[in-house]
Amino acid sequence: MKPSASSEIVANALTLAIHEHRLAPGTKLGEDDLAEIYGVSRTIVRAALQSLSHIQLVDIRRNRGAFVAQPSPIEAHEVFEARELLEPRTARNAALNATPKDIENLRAHIEAEHAAIHARDRGRALRLSGLFHIEIARIAGQTTIAEFIETLIARSSLIIALYWRRESALCESHAHHALIRAICDHDGSGAEELMRSHLVDLHTALDLRTQTEAPLSLREALQP
């Protein structure tokens, strides 16, 4: 059954909060609280949570309720290893396919990311960084692979929230600038190698031995 417009709005709002790290991994997503926060029925909230469970942003546990997903260290390694396999080749294809409009869109992503970094809004900067990678996958013109990459990037947001221990876990601006230069020059090999190196750097920037402190409450995280 196709989700209602209202459940999509709630799902999108929760997705944004997760990607911006306002909702930390492990946060309990109480149906009553969410229904009150968003002014909708529990049925709509339940549909939204089910849709997020399908893309692995939310874990629904029998008799316990819904929680923001909490990837294990093993899952974290697997997600980044998968990205390291898929995204370099995607960057190569993006470099071969990119139009001037595509380059303009990528530069706009970087400008927005820089603004978030300067505002010290690391959650928003990370979300924008993820969108930059998704845009490269879109430019590559490989729809099925792009869908996989989008799911992996969503999982990466949770992983960084849990295991971020160095500022370099945030996509560094010079890496994205270098990727844009290679894509603009239609340098497929260069874009492929830069993406591989960039993702390895992100992977090694995480401390997979430890996790963050307990998350905020729903009201603290979601209400303006």
Task: Provide key terms for this protein.
about 220 residues, mainly alpha, Arc Repressor Mutant, subunit A, Four Helix Bundle (Hemerythrin (Met), subunit A), 2 domains, two-stranded antiparallel sheet, 2 strands
Tell me what the structure shows:
The chain has 10 helices and 2 strands; from the N terminus they run αααββααααααα. The chain is mainly alpha-helical and 224 residues long. The protein folds into 2 domains: 5-70, Orthogonal Bundle (Arc Repressor Mutant, subunit A); 73-204, GntR ligand-binding domain-like (Four Helix Bundle (Hemerythrin (Met), subunit A)). Strands 1-2 form a two-stranded antiparallel ribbon. β1 and β2 form a beta hairpin. It is elongated and about 55 Å long. It starts with a helix and ends with a helix. The model has no long low-confidence stretch (mean pLDDT 86).
Layout of helices and strands, plus pairs?
Layout: H1 5-19, H2 31-38, H3 42-54, E1 58-61, E2 65-68, H4 73-97, H5 100-118, H6 122-140, H7 143-163, H8 173-184, H9 188-204, H10 218-222
Antiparallel strand pairs: 1-2
